[in-house]
Amino acid sequence: MEKILDLISKEVKAAFAAAGYSEELGRVTISNRPDLCEYQCNGAMAGAKQYKKAPIIIANEVAEQLAGSKVFSQADAVAPGFLNLKLTESFLAEYVRGMRDCEKFGLEEPERKETIVIDYGGPNVAKPLHVGHLRSAIIGESVKRIARYMGHKVIGDIHLGDWGLQMGLIMTELQERQPELVYFDETYTGEYPKEAPFTISQLEEIYPTASGKSKADPAYKEKAMEATYKLQSGVRGYRALWEQIIAVSVSDLKKNYANLNVSFDLWKGESDVHDIIPGMVDYMKKNGYAHESEGALVVDVKEETDTKEIPPCMILKSDGASLYNTTDLATIMDRMEQIGPDEIIYVVDKRQELYFEQVFRCARKTELVLPETKLKFLGFGTMNGKDGKPFKTREGGVMRLEHLLRDINEEMYEKISENASMTEEEARATAKQVALAAVKYGDLSNQASKDYIFDIEKFSSFEGDTGPYILYTIVRIKSILAKYKEQGGDAEGAALREAGSVSEKELTMELTGFNAMIEAAFAETAPHKVCAYIYDLANAFNHFYHETKILTEENAEKKEGWIALLVLTRDVLETCIDLLGFSAPERM
Residue 261, by phi and psi: left (phi above 0), alpha (psi -120 to 50) or beta? Predict the structure, then answer.
């Protein structure tokens, strides 16, 4: 189904051609003066020089061609040469009927379906998720859902930090506390216990303790580096203990991500590419891509057109150890071999832009990717407190994600439980849904690259540009449809009719922008465009609702038409919030 702007432009282009002008002048845009018209065309202004005519003359000639158009109820030439356009109610009604009757509201499938890998999440195992992990998870999940909705094959990968010195630190601390553990007996040949010798809570306390000791005690750090070496060299007990750490950590991570309604198709980490790094390094050496510099192995990635210094991409340190660059490049190589993606999108802190510029250039220079493979850096800004600084706990520490969500759930429960007709169980479930909408919409309504203030008081408001306002609008529509059903009406089978009022037409027109918005949100990896669209759609609905006595309307056909419009509005809104990663309750 063609986008409405394309259909409108097609009509105006034909009018320009019929009047003797280039049809390319007939491009239509949404009006920047909605008080005067709905759409506008400025083609006559652009054509004045080309055709050596006053733009108002061209505009008048085109307006004459549009007289009697089935698309436009108004096509006026306005000095100095604008075309002001309004749509007929019949054309609008026909268009939204098409949306209702088509899968995905008429969104056109891409000409070529791509395979896209989205790298988001990126937590380290054995550490709790904190607020610093929030944006990557929320933005990445929405980008994944939008790309899938467009029709592409999308694979989300968490990319765990599960292989470095932190593993050796944990193991060293465990050995100090429980030296009798069988994992540290290198003569042991039996099976290792199935139960881990620690809980997630103990694990989360062990790492910072070990990290602190290693900074104060060189001998302790040396032991941790030796444990890391044993793990990476494949010493049996250390590998078995590492598997226990991963199992306990991933189980906890899955629970916490589930609370955010975030999921991954792959749970891969740095460890998954450890064994292919030597082959990748040999390949880079043999083909002359990598060379030694001050003992380290590097690939030069600077280009003649650079206006700023781009340092070489280090592949191995002088002691032969690998780095994040090494595992990220090996991960790209692995993804190309195992998945063959057309595009890889990295959803990470924008402060890592230079790092990813080095990695992407290195991947291209060393031909780890095909020339046409797209590598995209989607950098996000910082989530700040009301003081404008990175969000912290009241005590000044980094807040755990589960504590943040718990606090917001409680705050929302206090509001929801004021509804005396709800049981505590329903109020708790509803509060959780609304709290998630508050957090996700509060984040996603900002352009990803921008810093934003995390203001839960504002985000949890049921008024203004917030998630709860969007949910309240959906619940209001559901309530009307439920009452219509109680009156004996068939909401799902109701027929859409021509708009009979200004507010009804404005709501209908907002609905017609859905397909263009989705395409733009995908092309620009911009979930904030979905938020802006549903906020406008919710406002248009509420304006219509306050002006229209829907359920008490005596004209059955008129009422049915309104109900059909509400069904489509509900469906579009619920589709959009699913793309943002949250859902609406039945009542609030």
Answer: left
Full domain range(s) for residue 73: 4-87
What the block records as the tokens of 518 is 């989705």
DSSP letters for 205-251: HHHHHHHHHHHH-HHHHHHHHHHHHHHHHT-HHHHHHHHHHHHHHHH
The predicted pLDDT at position 199 comes to 93
Q: Is 457 exposed, middle or buried (0-12, 13-18, 19+ CB in 10 A)?
A: exposed
Tell how far CA 206 is from the center of its chain: 33
Q: For the domain that residue 67 is a member of, what is the CATH number?
A: 3.30.1360.70
Among the listed residues 80, 11, 2, the one whose alpha carbon sits nearest the alpha carbon of residue 39: 11
Tens of pLDDT, residues 283-302: 999 999 999 999 999 999 99
117-134 pLDDT, tens digit per residue, is 999 999 999 888 988 899
409 token code pair: 């759930």
The Cα–Cα gap between 196 and 183 comes to 11
| Residue 396 confidence (pLDDT) above 70 | no
Q: What is the pTM of this model?
A: 0.95
Q: Does residue 292 form part of some domain?
A: no
With respect to residue 363, please indicate whether it lies within any of the assigned structural domains: no
Are 380 and 136 in contact by the 8 Å Cβ rule? The answer is yes
CA angle 144, 149, 150 (to 5 degrees): 100
CA distance 45 to 61: 13
Domain match, 464 and 558 both: yes
Residue 42 lies in a domain: yes
Closest CA to 242 of 174, 143, 298, 318: 174
CA 251 centroid distance within chain: 24
Largest Cα–Cα distance in the chain?
95
Same domain, 448 and 568: yes
Residue 486, pLDDT > 80, answer yes
